[in-house]
Amino acid sequence: MKRYVHVGTSLSTSKRTEDIERVLDRHADDWFRYAPNCWILWTDRPIANISRAIRRELKRVDEVLVLPINIEIGYAGFMDPSVWEWLKRPLS
Fold it and tell me: What is the pTM of this model?
């Protein structure tokens, strides 16, 4: 079942961001980068698979956190309008 997933990282170099985004292209139907180290994915892939695939691209000192997001129970914050537009768009 497709759902939103959050990916957060702590990276030793910004070069790793490109590597992560290549992984996201393979593991998500769509994704949105809302901060230099944070993405929201729309995917049906298991969280453990996403985490393992990203981890293979990172150095030992880099970190990654992958969590499900349930927007059905609500969400709030102060973000660029593009974030809210992406979350509210029709999904398939």
Answer: 0.91
